[in-house]
Amino acid sequence: AQMAKNAKSPGTFPNVHPSYKPFGPGFGIHVFRNIIATAGLRMFCTPCTALLETVTGKSNTLTQVGGDFAGNVCAACLSAPVHQLYGFTVTTPELAALGANEKKERMIQFLKDQYLETKDGRTRLSSVVPR
Questions:
Q1: What is the per-residue DSSP string for 59-112?
Q2: What tens digit of pLDDT does each residue of 38-76 get?
Q3: CA-based nearest residue to 74, from 56, 55, 51
Q4: How far apart are CA 25 and CA 33, in angstroms?
Q5: Please, is 7 exposed, middle or buried when counting C-beta atoms within 10 Å of its C-beta (0-12, 13-18, 19+)?
Q6: How far apart are CA 91 and CA 88, in angstroms?
């Protein structure tokens, strides 16, 4: 991500974090995203399969694959904001100089900018969220 940012904005990262060192900016967020995705898969696939079996009245390989697919989509929707936050964290070098509270505020503001919109004094989910 840092190399891509440097390609777009040369000099953003004078020293790109080496790939052989797994710990660095965003490591905790990356692990959290993977936990959400894995837990989501384990928690959503079975209920989605049961729902498809109830709706179709059949239990076969097709309903199992459909349930697994629906469970994967649910897990992806849950982990997407965390993945975007990871990308923001590793490509925003000024976060390293901020204190914990300031960093948290910047990350929350980033998520608000991505997922919320305010029109006529009302804040709601952005119209681009379903994409």
A1: -SHHHHHHHHHHHHHHHHHHHHHHHHHHHHHHT-GGGGGS-HHHHHHHHHHHHH
A2: 887 789 999 999 999 999 999 999 999 999 999 999 998
A3: 51
A4: 14
A5: exposed
A6: 5
Average pLDDT of every residue of the chain: 87
- The secondary structure element, H or E, covering residue 123 is strand 122-125
As a whole number of angstroms, the distance between CA 3 and CA 73 comes to 29
Cα distance between residue 93 and residue 95, in whole Å: 5
Over 90: is that where the pLDDT of 96 sits? no
Which of the 8 DSSP states describes residue 17? P
Give the amino acid at 50.
Answer: A
User: For residue 66, what are its two tokens?
Assistant: 């459909």
Q: What whole-number distance in Å separates Cα of residue 106 and Cα of residue 93?
A: 12
pTM of the model: 0.74
Burial (0-12, 13-18, 19+ Cβ within 10 Å), 126? middle
Q: Tell me 12's DSSP state.
A: S
